[in-house]
Amino acid sequence: MCRWLVYSGSPIRPEELLYKVDHSLIDQSMHAKLGATTLNGDGFGMGWYDGPRPPGLFRGIGPAWGDRNLRELSEHLETGLFFAHIRASTGTAVQETNCHPFRYRTWLWMHNGEIHDFHRIKRELALAIEPELFPHLEGSTDSELMFYLALSYGLRDDPPVAVARMVGHVERVAAEHGIANPVQMTVATSNGEHVWIFRYSSQRESRSLFYSRRIEALRELYPDNANFRRLSEQTRIIVSEPLGDLPGAWREVPESTYGLVEPGRDFLREFHPDPV
What we know:
Layout: E1 3-12, H1 15-18, H2 25-31, E2 44-49, E3 56-60, H3 68-76, E4 79-86, E5 102-104, E6 107-115, H4 118-126, H5 142-152, H6 159-176, E7 183-190, E8 195-201, E9 210-212, H7 215-221, H8 226-230, E10 236-239, E11 250-252, E12 257-262, E13 265-270
Antiparallel strand pairs: 1-4, 1-10, 2-3, 2-4, 5-6, 6-7, 7-8, 8-12, 9-10, 9-11, 12-13
Helix pairs in contact: 5-6
């Protein structure tokens, strides 16, 4: 499986979360505590927004902990919204086109989990992708295919509905092939203005996902922490597992839940697949 994070808020350099905090994402690439695997060394990626244009994207196939270009970029780039992902392959090839996040125009998508027995239903699932979207599918992962299925089901118009339809479709096709509990996922996706997150598994035993408490609450808990003083009240961080060990700083996203983060508000709601 994989580890990932989303940052939305005051512009920062990604190195602050990738390298400089306790149990940073780079540390998790070597010493994950809550993942299915301790080591996540099958590639990495970072996507970031810097205005209304499509997001930037940097991906590599080596372990994140040893990539000098990732360190260099994260030290000099400044952004208020970025995705970062470290990969542990569930069977597909270690290649750049299989590294997250995935990008389509202004959209980013990343995933932790799998479609169980993906190889048995891959062709049928791929045939449900809209013809105009199919040429943009570059890799061989279930994660990217889920992205293009969600786009086909209306991700650009209504992400919760589109992802519910995507999951429902996967579960229906899997059931037709005798595959039980096919979906395991935590997902983040964004159009540069809003961030949606999803935590769901067919077995109701999803991989871990956490979000940071409101900054004002963290300031009250930790008045001497300089990092909390300089961030805006709109700042949010969503992670596969907590960065550091600050008691009270992180809350778990409930099972079968989706959430929205956007300027001025954020919320969590129940998530249920739609068997289209």
